[in-house]
Amino acid sequence: MIVHLASFVWKDGTSPEQVAGVTAALYEMAREVPQLRFYLCGENLRLRPAGADFGVLALVDDPAGLDAYLDGEAHQRVQREWLSTMVASRQAAQLSSDALSVTGDWLAGH
Predict the structure, then answer these.
(1) In terms of CATH architecture, what is 2-92?
(2) Which residue intervals define the domain Stress-response A/B barrel in the entry (predicted)?
């Protein structure tokens, strides 16, 4: 499995309504991407100093799944309609983990 991590710092003036909107749009997008095995996004809890404003964790099976997710129309739509106007900076990393296993309805409640 590949773990995709992304963190975002919002532009000054980004509103709580925009953050709620992009969060909803990202979860809606996740439902449209069959390559996603798990998806989690949300505001930083700020339990430690510094850090980003928002984070994303996505699990896919392989590099082809990552490409399908990131390059797919659903992800590109969220980028165009939300993230392009909100993001001041973005960082991302991909990690390999064959030890992960995800079961259950991981989108329940979103």
Answers:
(1) 2-Layer Sandwich (3.30)
(2) 2-95
Tokens representing 52 are: 């980003």
Lookup result for tokens 């996004």: 41
Residue pair 109/31 in contact by the 8 Å Cβ criterion: no
Q: Which two tokens stand for residue 85?
A: 């106007």
Burial class, 64, CB count within 10 angstroms (exposed 0-12 / middle 13-18 / buried 19+): exposed
Distance CA 4, CA 58 (A): 5
Tens digit of each residue's pLDDT (9 = 90 or more) over 54-86: 999 999 999 999 999 999 999 999 999 999 999
Residues 6+ apart with CB under 8 A from 21: 82
